[in-house]
Amino acid sequence: MSQQGYVAAPPYSQAQPRMGGYQGGFGPGPAQPMNGHYGGPPQAFTAPPTGMMKPPVSSGAMPPPPSQFSPNMQHNGPQSYPAASAAYGQPLYNSMASQAPPPTQHLTNQMSAMNLGSYGQGPARGPPPQPVAQQPFQMPHAPVMGQPQMPPGPQSPQMSPPQSPSASMPMGGPPMAGPPMAGPPMAGPPMAGMGRPFPGPSPPGPGGFPQPSPGAAVPPGYPQQPGQFGGLIAGPQQGMPGAFPGAPGGLAGPPQKKLDPDSIPSTTQMIEDDRTKHGGQVYTTNIRGQVPPLVTTDFTVQDQGNASPRYMRCTAYSLPTTADLAKQCQVPLATIITPLAALPKNEAPLYLVNHGETGPIRCNRCKAYMCPYMQFTDGGRRYQCSFCNCVNEVPVFYFQHLDHMGRRVDFYERPELSLGSYEFVATLDYCKNNKPPNPPAYIFMIDVSYNNVKSGLVKLICEELKTLLQNLPREDGADASAIKVGFVTYNKILHFYNVKSALAQPQMMVVSDTAEMFVPLQDGFLVSYQESRAVISNLLDQIPDMFADTGESETVFAPVIQAGIEAFKAAQCSGKLFIFHSSMPTAEAPGKLKNRDDKKLVGTDKEKTLFQPQKGVYEQLSKECVAQGCCVDLFLFPSQYVDVATMGDVPARTGGSVYKYSNFQVDVDGEHFLRDLRKDVQKRVGFDAIMRVRTSTGFRATDFFGAIHMNNTTDVEMAAVDCDKAVTVELKHDDALNEEAGALLQCALLYTTIGGQRRLRVHNLSLNCSSQLSELYKSCETDALINFFAKSAYRAILNQPLKSVREILVNQTAHMLACYRKNCASPSAASQLILPDAMKVFPVYMNSLMKTGPLVGSTELSTDDRAHQRLAVMAMGVEETQLLLYPRLIPLHNMDVGAEAPPTPLRCSEERLADAGVFLLENGHAMFLWLGQASPPDLIQNLFNVPSLAHLQAHMSVLPVLDNPLSKKVRGVIGDLLEKRPGSMKLQIVRQKDKPEMLFRQFLVEDKGLHGGASYMDFLCYIHREVRQLLT
Question: Where does the Sec23/Sec24 trunk domain lie (predicted)?
C-alpha cells in the first residue's frame, strides 16, 4: 500500500543568490562522468531505452540505464521522505534491487508550477493532504533541458507555508516565528536552472553554462562573475535581472510564499523517535542482518552470536546479491569497525579463551578463526568453514559430541561458538621473534623552546604529570600499571633524563647531533613510575626552572620521533610518544619544514597540495614507527602556520591523535588541554596491532580508511589502536552472493595489551543478502553511510580538485535516490521528492559534510585547521562523525531543573534560537553557550552571578560555581557531555549579535554556510532536481 509523504507549498523555483556557490546553468556532463571511483575509470550510465526522450543532462548526471528503473515502481512503508545515500565516488556499488520497498517518505513540494514556460501556480500534485507525517511534499518542476527558464521575479523568492495545517512535522520546542531562511531573503537565479552544486571543472559554454542544444541560438557572451567556490556564475543579461542565457527577457514570476521548514525531514525528530522505540532496551544480536538502534540511542547489547554494533556497524545490513545490483543503486557497502570500543558498565567485558600452546583453532585454508558460523559434521569430528567452505578435522583436544540439532553439546560453554565477540590468548607464534612482548612504555617529550616556557605551558605539563602518572592505565585487577615511563625535553637539541630509582637526583644527558639520533642511556631511561616516583617528581619540579631563561626559539621535530623509536628498539617494547610542540621545526635537522601555506591555491586544482604531507623523512618515520609499535600523539600549541598536514602525518599513520590549541593561553585554554591529556593518557590502548578482515565467498574487503598503515592489500597495521579509533572498510563483490547463506564478516585484531600480553580479538557479523533493492534501502544506516562518505571524500581531496569531489558527492546522493525512486517507490508525481525511510535525513548530513572546512575551499579558513579536521575525521567512528556533522543544540532556558534527562535537542538552525533564550551547542569538538540578547536578568544572575548580559566579561570559558538549581543543572549537563565525548571541548560563551557569534553560527548546519554552502532546504531542492534529471 502506498502512502504519501508531506506537502509543502510552492517554491523552490528560485534559488537564493549565490547559493552555496552552486554554479549557474546546466553544464554538459564533464569529460569523465563522476559516478565512478575516485580516480577510477569513468563509468557512465547506459542510454535510456529507445523511444524515451533524452534531454541533455546536467553536468555529471548521467541518464539512468534501462534496467535501472522499472516502470512499475512500488513504494511502501509508512512515510515518504527525502533520502539520499550515495556511494562516494567509490567504484560503483552493487546494490540489491528489491520489490518489497522500504518505507519511505515523500517530500513533495508544490511549486509555482514551472511547467515548461507556464508561469502561475500549478495545482498540487498527488492526493489530497493527509495527516502529519504523511504529506506529499512538492518540489519545483525542473524545466526540461533546452526549455527557457523562468527568470527570478522582482520579489525575493520566499518559501510558502504548508498548504494544510498538518503538513508540518511535529517538532520539539515551540514553533519559532521569523523567516525560515537565515539571513535576508535573497533574489537569484532560478533553482531549477542551477548547475552542479559543486562546480566541477568549468564546463564549456559562456560562464560555465552548457552549450545550448543544437538549433538554439547562442546568446551573446555574458560577463562572468566568480562563484563562491571559484566556479563561474554567468552575469545578468542586458535588460534582465539575473536571468539565464536563453531565457525570455522580462518575464517575472509571481511573488513566492514561504515554505515551512518543519515540513522537511528532521534529524532531531528521527533521533527522538529511535530513542522512544529502542531507548533503555536490550538489543540481542541473535538475528542475521538486524539493523541496530541509532548511535544516538542508549541501549544495552546482549551478544548472542553477532558482534555488538559498538564494535561493528554497516552501511547496509542486507547486501545486494550481485555486483550489477550494487552498481545500479550506488549505495556504498562498508563496515565501520572500532575493535577496542569501550563498553558501558552494564555490559560484560569480552571473554578470554585460552587454548594453551595449541592456540586458537583456525580453518586450514582461509585461516578464519573458530566462530559461531562454523558447521560441525561427522558426529563432531569435522567442521566446515563458513567463510571458504573448506572441511577441516577437529583437533582431538577440541572434540565434542553433537546434540540432536547438530550443535555441539558444549555450545554455550565456549564463547567462540556462541558469541559474536571474544578474545584468544595468543601463543608465541603470534609474537615478534617468537618471544613474549615486554609491557609498553610512554615517553613524554616536551618542547622547551622560548614560547612554551614563556606561556607557562612547560610548568603546566610538569605539574599535571606528577598526578597523572599515578593514573596510568592498568590491567583489570592489577595493583599498578605495567607501563614504563621516560622523559625528554628538546629545542634544537635533545635532553634525555636518567630517573633510575637508585639516584638521589635525575641526570640529564644531551644529544646535539640530531642527524644521527641515538639514545645515550639504556638503564634508567624507561622506568616504573611506582619505583622511581621520588626521582621523577624531582625532575618535574626542576624542568621549568632549568629552562626558565632560555632564549632558544628554534625547534626540531623528526629527530624527536626518531629518538622515541630508538628508545623502544633498545628496550624491545612498543609504546606511545606524547609530544608537546609549539612551532614549525625550522632548525637545521632532518624533517626541517618550510612555510608552504599559500592562500592563492585555494579554489584551484593545486589546492590538494595543501593537504598533502611533505614527502621524505616523515614517510620513512611512519614506517619505522609502525614496525616498532611506536604510536605518536601530538599536542600542538601554534601561534601561526605549522604545516599540520606534514606534522600530523606520523600520528595519522600510527594510530595516534593530533590535538591543536591555537594561540594557547594557560588561564583560558589550560583546563581544556589538561582534560585532553588526561583522557589520552588514561585510555585503554592496544599496541603493535595488526588487523585482518575476512569475508565469506562472493565479496571481500577492498579499501581501508583510518589512522592506519598498509604494507599490503589485506593487513591493516597500527602502531597502536585505542577505544575511539575506527577503521572504515569498503566491501565489494567478486562473485554473486547467496540469499540463503547470507554474507559473513570476521575482523581479527592481534595486539599487545597494556599489561604486555599478546591477544587476538575476534568480531563476527552476519548480514543478509537479497536480490530486491528495496531490502537494501530498508536496511541502510545513514550514520554509517555518512562516516564512509566523509572518509572517502577526505581521502579523495589529496588527489583530486575539491570541485570534482563535491560533484561526486552530489552525484552519488542523487543516484542513490533516483535508483530508489525508480525501483522501490510507488508511482507518484515527478514533483515529489521521495526518500527511503532509512535515509530520509541523509541529505542533511551530506550537505553538512560539504560545508566542512576541508571541502569548502575558503581563503578565510586556516589551512592548518582544515588539515587538522581532515586527519581527525579519518580515524573517527560512526558516533563521532554523526555528532560532528549534526551538532546538538540544547535549549537551557526553559528546562526542568529537577528532571534527570537533559532537554531534547532542537534542529540546528537559526530559526530555533530565541532572543530570550539560552542554548548550548556541541559537536564533540567545539562547545558554545549562546545567550539571547533578551535573556531574563534572573537567568543571567543564576548562571553567571552578574545582573545582566552587559556585565558579562568577554572570553569566559567556564561557568562560575553557584549554589542554585539552574547553575548546578547547566554545569551538570556540560560536565556530562565533556565526560561522554572522546576529546575535551573548550566552552565558548557568546552573546547574540557579538562578533564571536559568527563562529557559533557556522555550526547551525541547516542554514547557509558562512564560507559557502547551501542551506538544507536549498540542497534538498537541488538534489530533487538532480534526481528528476536522472529519471527523465
Answer: 437-681
